């Protein structure tokens, strides 16, 4: 099936006319306005829909505490309305937020529930988004064997249904796995296909992420610094216009990566420091740790004491391990060898056992979703990371 224009199915009800390219500040303002109107009218189904848009706008703007409150309120409103599909969308938002905050076990739990609720509620779109969220969580952790097939399956389904936005997401995820395993030619082809597909579908967010991927491959494979920086500058325009805080921070970190590879260490240092501040502001632990790693490498190249570098890399190794990134130790120890400070000292954190945060195997357990009986919110405030 031919792909049409990209849509934003998370914008529902009174917000259904919003574009996938709508500024997030505009989405948030409209969402809050319509949410208040729905509350005044006593319409829980509309409260759930508007609350979902508020949650997603807050999450993408890096306002994580507000996003956390909003997705839970959306879930409760959907539950009171007996709308299982709307409950699934709220759980998807909550699971995506958990992943953004580095809480992988919680992300797996909520996204698996969201996929089941979507199936029970007859909403194949939220089911697909939730499965995609599971696949992305596993990919971020480096569990490519577990999620590679799921990425390919979701790509095929998205193409069959003509869902351009989901097609772009899947292409980018598969491309990233190829890039990380050293197949740069395949990665570049997929990133370029994603950028072209996003462009035809008017999906500016998806295109910005694809351009970032292309820039990365051109930098690491070809050493083409200027072209990489041009692509990142183009992507930054879209990120700023749409207020994509997380995408912008990752764009800035990639720009620093490109400069570091080119030996422009002072510029790279400043870029990593900028990205680090942005990640810290939005409380994104994965981005924070990766920006710290880049900054540590740049500072070492600029003459930082070797002992200080080794101590920071050792701490970062433990931090990334706690977050649950499988390739963290390899990344940090590669940096230590590159900088001449290996082997790193062994700390108490490095001796700890493996966390139970890997991609979930086996069938999804039966959920208590039956006609006329929907479950309570399946996560308490205490379980939500702060």
How many strands in all? Answer: 0
Taken in chain order, the helices and strands follow as HHHHHHHHHHHHHHHHH
> Any idea of the CATH class of the domain at 7-121?
Mainly Alpha
* Residues in β-strands, percent: under 5%
Assign the CATH architecture of the domain at 7-121: Alpha Horseshoe
How many angstroms does the end-to-end distance come to?
A: 43 Å
CATH topology of the domain at 7-121: Serine Threonine Protein Phosphatase 5, Tetratricopeptide repeat
With helices defined by DSSP (H or I, 4 residues minimum), what is the helix count? 17
- The low-confidence parts are 351-356, 361-375, 378-386
Largest sheet: none
Structural class: mainly alpha
In CATH, what is the homologous superfamily of the domain at 7-121?
Tetratricopeptide repeat domain
Helix content: over 70%
Mean pLDDT: 88
- Write down the overall geometry: globular
Region (Disordered): 344-386
Protein name: Tetratricopeptide repeat protein
InterPro entries: TPR-like_helical_dom_sf, TPR_rpt
Pfam family, one: TPR_12
Write the layout of secondary structure elements.
Elements: H1 24-41, H2 44-60, H3 64-81, H4 84-100, H5 104-120, H6 124-140, H7 144-161, H8 164-180, H9 184-201, H10 204-222, H11 225-242, H12 245-261, H13 265-281, H14 285-301, H15 306-323, H16 328-339, H17 348-351
Helix pairs in contact: 1-2, 2-3, 2-4, 3-4, 4-5, 4-6, 5-6, 6-7, 6-8, 7-8, 8-9, 8-10, 9-10, 10-11, 10-12, 11-12, 12-13, 12-14, 13-14, 14-15, 15-16
């Amino acid at each position: 099936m031919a792909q049409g224009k990209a849509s934003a199915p998370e914008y529902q009800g009174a917000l259904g006319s919003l574009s996938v390219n709508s500024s997030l500040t505009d989405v948030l303002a409209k969402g809050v306005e319509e949410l208040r109107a729905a509350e005044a009218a006593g319409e829980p189904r509309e409260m759930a829909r508007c609350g979902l848009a508020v949650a997603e706008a807050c999450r993408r703007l890096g306002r994580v505490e507000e996003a956390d409150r909003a997705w839970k309120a959306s879930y409760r409103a959907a539950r009171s309305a007996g709308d299982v599909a709307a409950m699934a969308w709220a759980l998807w938002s909550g699971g995506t937020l958990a992943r953004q905050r580095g809480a992988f076990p919680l992300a797996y739990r909520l996204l698996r529930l969201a996929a089941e609720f979507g199936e029970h509620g007859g909403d194949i779109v939220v089911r697909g988004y939730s499965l995609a969220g599971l696949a992305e969580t596993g990919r971020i952790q480096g569990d490519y064997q577990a999620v590679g097939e799921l990425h390919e399956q979701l790509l095929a389904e998205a193409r069959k249904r003509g869902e351009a936005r989901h097609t772009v997401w899947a292409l980018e995820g598969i491309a990233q796995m190829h890039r990380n395993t050293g197949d740069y030619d395949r990665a570049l082809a997929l990133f370029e296909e994603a950028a072209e597909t996003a462009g035809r579908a008017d999906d500016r967010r998806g295109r910005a992420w694809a351009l970032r991927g292309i820039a990365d491959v051109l930098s690491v494979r070809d050493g083409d610094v200027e072209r990489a920086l041009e692509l990142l500058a183009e992507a930054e325009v879209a990120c700023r216009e749409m207020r994509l805080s997380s995408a912008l921070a990752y764009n800035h970190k990639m720009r620093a990566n490109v400069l570091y590879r080119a030996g422009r260490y002072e510029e790279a240092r400043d870029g990593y420091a900028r990205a680090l501040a942005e990640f810290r502001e939005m409380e994104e632990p994965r981005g924070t740790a990766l920006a710290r790693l880049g900054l540590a490498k740049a500072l070492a190249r600029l003459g930082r004491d070797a002992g200080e570098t080794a101590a920071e890399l050792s701490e970062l190794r433990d931090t990334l391990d706690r977050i649950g990134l499988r390739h963290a130790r390899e990344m940090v120890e590669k940096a230590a060898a590159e900088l001449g400070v290996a082997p790193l000292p062994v700390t108490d954190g490095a001796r700890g056992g493996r966390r139970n945060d890997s991609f979930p195997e086996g069938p999804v357990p039966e959920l208590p979703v039956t006609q006329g009986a929907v479950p309570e919110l399946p996560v308490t405030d205490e379980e939500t990371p702060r």
